[in-house]
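[09:14] KT: can someone run the structure on this one? pasting the chain below
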Amino acid sequence: MKFLRLIPILFILLGTFPHKNLVHAEIKNPKNYKVLSNDGKKLSILNVKYFIKEGDKFIKNGDFDKAKGSYLDARKLAKQLASFYSDLNTSFKGVDARIPTEMQRKGKESLQILAVTNERLTSLYLKTEEPEVAVPLLIETIRILTPNSPEGKAAYERLNQLGFVDTKYKG
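[09:31] RB: done, structure tokens below
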């Protein structure tokens, strides 16, 4: 019984030691502790760019199947990122104006890189004589970046060259 009475006293004594000097971790760059902000992580635009770069290397080596796989991985990741940023943008509208602004910027960057990926895939499909697979990619590029963007104009021009559309866009 006397032992049980000593437990609160031990807690009081142990609680009086300063914890400030017991931790010796050094923080040089707080971004290093944000797991997804480091280079080469899976959910990042840097990783999408890496997949595109790998696909370009495969194209130079003539390995179209591996290039296609790399470009498809880049496209899938870019679409996921755009979707995640869009969801966060919608969730925080009216709550904290800074967050939707950041999510809109990151979402736009994701859509830009998605358009680059679509353009690479389109070129690959045209090179391998699969224009029917390239058409949806071109249409998606126009949809996500508008027909007035340089990428949208180029995509529509390609649709015209393929014979999918007849009217030239003058925008």
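[09:33] KT: thanks! Residues 98-127 form the longest helix (30 residues).
[09:34] RB: yep, looked fine to me
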